[in-house]
Amino acid sequence: MKRFFVTLTVCATLAAVVSCEYDSPEIRFQQTTTFTNDYSKVIDALRDQTLTISQKMDLLADAMKNQTLTLSEKMSLLEEALKNQALTLSEKMDLMAKAYENGVLKYEELTGKLISEIKAANTGMAEKLDAIKRAVEAQTTDLNSKMDFIGKALDLIADTAEKGFDKNAEASGLVKAAIESLKGSMEKKLDAINDAIASQSATLSDKLTLIKGAVDAGLVGENSTLGLVKKAIDALNSTAGTANEKLDAIKEAINSPSSGLNVKLEAIKEAVAQGLVDVTTKQDLILAAINSSSSYSFTKDELLEVGDDYLLVDDAFWNANHQNYEMVRALKDLIPLSLPTKCKFYFKQDSGKYPLSGYEDTSFYGPLYEEGKILRVIQSSSELILAVNLQTESNNPNLISKNGHSCYFLKKVYRSCYYVFHVGIGGYAAGKKLKMENMGNKDNFAVKSEYIEYDFWSEAVATKLGVWGFHDLAYDPKVHPNRSKEFIIIEDK
């Protein structure tokens, strides 16, 4: 037992000696840190094989902060370090980040070097994406530079990406991170976004992606993107270029998968309003937009026309595919929620029909739901469906001829729900006892102090084809000026 303890003591002594030998580089490293103001000695230290990667990284970080070294010397030190094949991409990113934080690199230089390192790096996708994200999160208000970098970096790694790599999702996440990294209040972030969108340097594609990022970051609502989109199209329209060049820029932006369908549809609408796109090209762009974000690939012979609140689709295509969830979901995304009928409100006297408001010919409400207008709320709503227009006399779909195709007229509606209308009581209706004429069995009617409330029950019916539809769903004020549901309010005598 005594000999055993002696042996342990000797081993411990030897271990201590060995430890001292292996700790000697640490001692040498401590000495080299005093030379960070001497360029040549820092170079020697970086080439010293006895120093660890961690020690060299610390040494270089100190050198980047050193006020006695020139900018040229610091750049040379960084280049020397980046040549080291033993450094991982993450470690090189650490060095470049330190250089950027200390003013050695401009942002464009940082991202340019990172692009080069990504090209040369033999590493996994996760490490590359992490390095890109860190560069995007660097503190700068220059969104244009960040957007340009995101596009170049993702294009680069997409060429060698592993199966399952989603460039669209990665771009959305990086743009969101870029916006969130901006300094200051929400107002200042919005100012930076507006400046980037109004700039002449960024592409329309990048600008639409930026708008989608602003939505994702919660800075603007999805239904409030029109102003930003208009600014982006205005910038495009004001640049010196031919009509074809502008159209090419619009097509490129629409084909890009990273800006989102809602933003693309707003861009197409604005391009039409500014005369950059004709009706035929509009349909082509809408088709490209939906196919860039859908797992189902639509053709011109399937999706024939997209209106503000309707679709025209080939009947054979619809009959064969209306149970395809992905296809129907994509079509739903193309149009806003609509009312199944147009609605007119009248106050009826013996002399004729008068408006409830007292200052309009009719109290007319259009096809779209707008919060705070006559349609106040939608209650007890069931699932959203694409409903077909039905023949008046039956539950058979009403077919329309379009471009040599037999097609259906479709709208996005609720299968069943209450539409709650509030119609203000004006001069003609004030002080009257009122009731509703021709109400449905499920409809509700009430007179309040300042308005008339009408709850209109709407319910789709099932067709023989297994789809849902409404009678007189289609509405064209030029062709069918009276195709609307009239709510007649009469004096109770």
Short description:
46% of the residues lie in helices and 17% in strands. It has 493 residues and is of the alpha+beta class.
How would you describe what is shown here?
With 493 residues, this protein is of the alpha+beta class. It has a domain of 161 residues. Helices cover 46% and strands 17% of the residues. It contains 17 helices and 16 strands. Strands 1, 2, 7, 8, 9, 14 and 15 form a seven-stranded mixed sheet that branches. Strand 1 and strand 2 form a beta hairpin. Helix 5 runs antiparallel to helix 6. It is elongated. The termini are far apart. The relative contact order is 0.06.
Helices and strands in order, then pairings?
Elements: H1 2-32, H2 39-47, H3 53-65, H4 71-82, H5 89-101, H6 107-120, H7 125-136, H8 143-158, H9 167-180, H10 186-198, H11 204-216, H12 226-238, H13 243-255, H14 261-273, H15 279-292, E1 303-306, E2 311-314, H16 315-321, H17 325-332, E3 343-349, E4 352-354, E5 363-365, E6 375-379, E7 384-390, E8 400-402, E9 405-414, E10 416-424, E11 434-437, E12 444-447, E13 451-459, E14 461-462, E15 468-471, E16 485-491
Parallel strand pairs: 3-16, 7-15
Antiparallel strand pairs: 1-2, 2-9, 3-4, 3-5, 6-10, 7-9, 8-9, 10-13, 11-16, 12-13, 14-15
